[in-house]
Design a protein that fits this description.
Elements: H1 8-18, E1 28-33, H2 36-52, E2 57-62, H3 64-70, E3 74-76, H4 78-81, H5 86-91, H6 93-110, E4 114-118, H7 121-133, E5 139-143, H8 148-151, H9 155-162, E6 165-168, H10 173-178, E7 184-186, H11 190-198, E8 205-212, H12 217-237, E9 242-247, H13 250-262, E10 272-274, H14 277-283, E11 284-290, H15 293-300, E12 305-309, H16 313-322, H17 330-335, E13 342-344, H18 350-362, H19 364-378, H20 386-398
Parallel strand pairs: 1-2, 1-4, 2-3, 4-5, 5-6, 6-7, 8-9, 8-11, 9-10, 11-12, 12-13
Helix pairs in contact: 2-3, 2-20, 6-7, 12-13, 12-18
């Protein structure tokens, strides 16, 4: 397969100087991911690329899953890089500036055959623009499309100038990018495959409420106190309700236990579970899930849930000015309506969250209707094989 775009003349004119007009006995791919979800997706892509060509060498930035799949050329940085919020990023400006410069220098020195950017647009799109400006002529491929359709559609034209291929995971994104002239494929959503491998024969446990406050420390610090307040309020109405809290890692689990003590709810320390998020999404009768990848995961497992979102005031007001869509939850975006209740910023507190959980617990028809709606949306995401299709597209683009 040959990928034709508006960069053909540039590549042809400089192929001799940069040695990209060659065969690839030992293909070299540099991959950059900056969050836990991106680390997972990049690792899946690396494994499939290795199956296509075991000699491929990988370098880049990611997390532990990428290191396990790609080897020692991957630097683990996601614990530091995975920050959310304008103010939080500004506080780390010097760090990100230095990391961006070091990444560009490494790529321009080693001249990999391709750079694959996985989500994380604030960093990755800046790297892509800088590499083109500094003469990098290898392929630049984006996997897991940044949600520019939600906040900065003007960036699509810029992306079309610096990227060679977009591999998106939501069906509606393909036309958005193709209108700009950027070659784009819909590879399917990887969560479809993961659900098949992670699904167990759990039965939903009556009156079990799941709290999923996110995988980042700043998310947990904002959301878990509200969830604990809601738990107290729910217990006053339904004393037989039980709770569980999903922790992404031991560090977060320990912080959650400290927060339970601080809230005067030491019994909540026993609710915290680490590494069981997908089991909990299948066991709980209802739940509240932090905005992000986990909301799609919950939908794929059929969990009736509410989306919760809270950031600092500055970040929220800036986001309100730039986001151009009605809903922030991807399930609602895909459905074109509010399938999942979105509880955002001032609308989210212990009382409102408790009321929504009690509604879902007590109204069987509402809960069943939500489950059916979630299944219908998930059905639009493809039939599996997403990482393999993405790997084939990357390999074909490089060849």
């Amino acid at each position: 397969m040959v990928w034709k775009n508006n960069r053909q003349s540039r590549n042809a004119g400089s192929a001799t100087a940069t040695n990209h007009c060659k065969t690839f006995p030992h293909m070299h791919i540099h991959i950059i991911a900056g969050e836990i979800s991106g680390d997972t997706h990049a690792a899946g892509l690396i494994r499939e690329l290795r199956r296509l060509d075991p000699s491929v060498r990988f370098t880049g930035l990611g997390g532990q899953r990428m290191k396990e799949a790609g080897g020692l050329g991957i630097e683990d940085w996601v614990e530091t890089a995975g920050v959310v919020g304008l103010w939080e990023v500004l506080k780390m400006y010097s760090y990100f500036k230095a990391k961006k410069a070091a990444t560009e220098a490494q790529i321009l020195s080693e001249r990999p055959d391709a750079v694959v950017l996985v989500d994380y647009p604030g960093f990755n799109l800046r790297v892509a623009k800088a590499l083109r400006a500094k003469g990098y002529t290898g392929k630049i491929i984006y996997y897991i499309s940044p949600q520019v359709w939600a906040w900065k559609k003007g960036r699509v034209k810029i992306m079309a100038k610096v990227l060679d291929l977009m591999i998106c995971i939501f069906p509606f994104e393909k036309s958005v990018y193709e209108q700009s002239g950027l070659p784009t494929i819909f590879g399917g959503h990887p969560m479809v495959d993961r659900v098949v491998s992670l699904r167990k024969n759990w039965k939903r446990e009556k009156n079990l409420v799941g709290w999923f406050p996110g995988s980042r420390m700043n998310e947990v610090k904002r959301l878990l106190p509200i969830m604990l307040q809601a738990a107290y309020a729910i217990r006053l109405q339904q004393p037989d309700v039980r709770f569980c809290v999903s922790a992404a890692n031991d560090t977060l689990a320990n912080e959650m236990r400290h927060m339970a003590d601080a809230a005067g709810m030491p019994e909540a320390k026993g609710w915290v579970e680490t590494g069981t998020v997908y089991d909990l999404m299948q066991r709980c009768q209802v739940g509240a899930v932090a905005s992000g990848t986990a909301t799609l995961e919950a939908a794929c497992f059929g969990l009736p849930y509410a989306l919760v979102y809270k950031v600092n005031t500055l970040t929220y007001h800036v986001a309100k000015q730039v986001v151009k869509i009605r809903h922030i939850g991807i399930i609602n975006v895909l459905a074109g309506r509010e399938v999942v209740r979105e509880m955002v910023q001032a609308d989210l507190n212990g009382d409102t969250l408790a009321a929504e959980m009690v509604r879902l617990l007590s109204d069987d028809a509402a809960r069943e209707s939500l489950t059916d709606d979630l299944a219908a949306v998930v059905a639009t995401l493809g039939e599996g094989g997403a990482y393999l299709r993405a790997a084939q597209a990357v390999y074909s683009a490089i060849r």
